[in-house]
Write a structure and sequence with these properties.
Strand order of the largest sheet: 1-2-3-6-7-8-9-10
Number of strands: 10
Largest sheet: 8 strands, antiparallel, barrel
Number of domains: 1
Number of helices: 1
Shape: elongated
């Protein structure tokens, strides 16, 4: 075997090893995950801003996400308390391995302030970055009105950022 052939084979093997290593570095094992807010959660209905939210669930090795519990608290709008309650759990969704698109399907939030009680839901789409931890950012993700009085707008928008951690990543 000529020196040029050996050099070419060694280079090809090195490139293949790097490609396999890069792929393995972003592979998720699947398992439990949890998430907490790393930026406030806002709901355009009454301009509600929430300071605390936690999610728990599981992530499949292929990126399939199940959110089994969700809490939201510390919500205010115009100086008044707002109750924001996640509903319709579990939510399904996806995280793109190594970064890309994140979705929460079946997502629902109920917002209550004084006499206004509105339920919104749908699929929200955002962006995820990182592999462990994973940061998911939703910016003005629209959700449609499911129920509520006539004072509830037909569409609300949800923004926020969650940081996912856990052995499933």
């Amino acid at each position: 075997m000529s020196r040029a052939t050996r050099l070419a084979l060694a280079s090809a093997a090195s490139v293949a090893a790097v490609a396999l290593t890069a792929t393995a570095a972003h592979a998720w094992t699947g398992g439990s995950v949890s998430a907490s807010l790393s930026q406030p959660l806002t709901v355009s209905l009454a301009g509600a801003t929430c300071t605390t939210s936690n999610l728990t669930g599981s992530l499949a090795a292929g990126g399939g996400l199940t959110i089994s519990t969700a809490t939201v608290s510390g919500c205010t709008a115009l100086g008044s308390s707002v109750t924001v309650t996640p509903e319709n759990l579990p939510w399904s969704g996806t995280l793109t391995n190594g970064g890309g698109t994140a979705t929460f399907s079946g997502f629902q939030l109920r917002a209550k302030q004084l006499f206004v009680n509105c339920l919104y839901g749908g699929t929200i789409t955002g962006v995820n970055t990182g592999s462990s931890p994973v940061t998911v950012t939703f910016t003005d993700a629209p959700v449609n009105k499911i129920s509520g009085s006539g004072i509830c707008p037909s569409v609300a928008e949800v923004s926020g950022q969650y940081t996912f951690t856990g052995p499933g990543l």
